[in-house]
Write a structure and sequence with these properties.
The chain is an alpha/beta fold. It is built from 12 helices and 8 strands. It folds into 2 domains: about 60 residues, no CATH class; about 200 residues, 3-Layer(aba) Sandwich (Rossmann fold). Helix 1 packs across helix 2.
C-alpha cells in the first residue's frame, strides 16, 4: 500500500471508528493477525542450503523448520513478525561449532508453515508443540515478536535453561497501543478491539503477555539484548524485561532492529551465554 492510500485508509478509519466503533474494531481485529510473506534474500538462501528442512506437527497444522545437525543440546531460533526461519540463519554455524543442534522454525502464518495469521498465544503454543516433537530444548533465541513468543512459551510451561531475546517488546498492551495509533482508532473502537482479543484468548491475556508481570516467575536464565537505535521497538522494553526477570541486559548502539542479527559480537555473546547454561 502506497503512502497516499495509507493516509486515506487511516483518515477513513479515524472518522468511522467514532461513527461505527464496533464495525471498525472487528475490521481491525481481522487485519491485526494477518501475516505477509516476503522474498527471501540471497544470504538467507545460502544459510538455509546448509540445513535440513523438516515438518513438525502442531495442533493447528504443520510447522516448517530448518535443522542444522549437531550432537549437543537443542537451541531453537524464533524469528520476528512477518519473518521466517532463515532470517535467524547467521546463528547456526557458531552455535553448531559450540556443540549445539540448531533448529529454526517458521511460526504459524510465516514461511513454510500453515496459515496466514498468527498471534502471541498461538505461536507460544506452536513452540510447545515443537518441544513435544523434538524433545528437550536447551535454549530459545527469539528476535522481536519471536522473543516475546519465547518468553510467553517458557512462562506457560516450556522447559528451557536459557532464553535470549533480541529487540523484543515487553507487553501485549504496547502492541495494541501501537496498532490502534497506526490505524487512528478512536477510544471506543480501541476498547472494543481489546474486548475482541479477550474473547478469543481469555480476559487474562494481558497479564499472561506482560513480561514485567511474569518476569519474576521466569524459570530460565535470560539474556535481553536491544539496540538503542531500534526504530521498531524502543529499547526501554529491554530495561523492563531485564529488571523484572533479573536477566542479563546487553545494550548495543547503531545496529538497529535487524542488522543486529548478523553482528559477530552479538553472536559471540549469545553463544557464550547459552554455553554457560550447560553447567548451571
Amino acid at each position: 500500500m502506497n503512502q497516499s492510500a495509507l493516509k486515506v485508509m487511516q483518515s477513513t478509519i479515524a472518522v468511522a471508528s467514532y461513527l461505527a466503533p464496533s464495525f471498525c474494531a472487528r475490521l481491525a481485529f481481522r487485519q491485526w493477525f494477518k501475516t505477509h510473506r516476503y522474498n527471501v534474500p540471497k544470504r538467507e538462501i545460502t544459510w538455509a542450503s546448509t540445513a535440513k528442512q523438516i515438518s513438525i506437527p502442531s495442533e493447528q497444522g504443520q510447522l516448517n523448520a530448518l535443522v542444522w545437525s549437531g550432537t549437543g543440546p537443542k537451541v531453537v531460533l524464533v524469528h520476528g513478525w512477518n519473518g521466517r526461519a532463515s532470517q535467524m540463519g547467521a546463528f547456526a554455524k557458531p552455535l553448531c561449532e559450540a556443540g549445539f543442534e540448531v533448529v529454526a522454525i517458521d511460526l504459524p502464518g510465516h514461511g513454510g508453515s500453515y496459515g496466514n495469521t498468527s498471534s502471541l498465544p498461538l505461536s507460544a503454543q506452536a513452540l510447545s508443540d515443537v518441544e513435544q516433537f523434538l524433545g528437550p530444548i536447551h535454549a530459545l533465541v527469539g528476535h522481536s515478536f519471536g522473543g516475546a513468543v519465547s518468553l510467553l512459551a517458557v512462562s506457560e510451561g516450556l522447559q528451557a535453561k536459557a532464553v535470549v531475546t533480541i529487540g523484543s517488546p515487553s507487553k501485549l498492551e504496547w502492541l495494541l497501543d501501537i496498532y490502534a495509533e497506526f490505524l487512528h482508532l478512536g477510544p471506543s473502537a480501541k476498547r472494543k478491539l481489546a474486548g475482541l482479543l479477550e474473547d478469543k484468548y481469555g480476559p487474562d491475556v494481558w497479564q499472561r503477555c506482560d513480561f514485567e508481570l511474569t518476569g519474576p516467575d521466569l524459570k530460565a536464565n535470560a539474556l535481553i539484548i536491544h539496540d538503542s537505535h531500534d526504530k521498531e521497538v524502543p529499547d526501554y522494553h529491554a530495561d523492563i524485561i531485564a529488571k523484572a526477570s533479573s536477566a542479563h541486559l546487553l545494550k548495543t548502539s547503531g545496529l538497529g532492529h535487524t542488522r543486529i542479527l548478523r553482528n559477530q559480537n552479538i553472536m559471540e555473546e549469545i553463544v557464550n551465554f547459552i554455553s554457560a547454561q550447560k553447567y548451571s
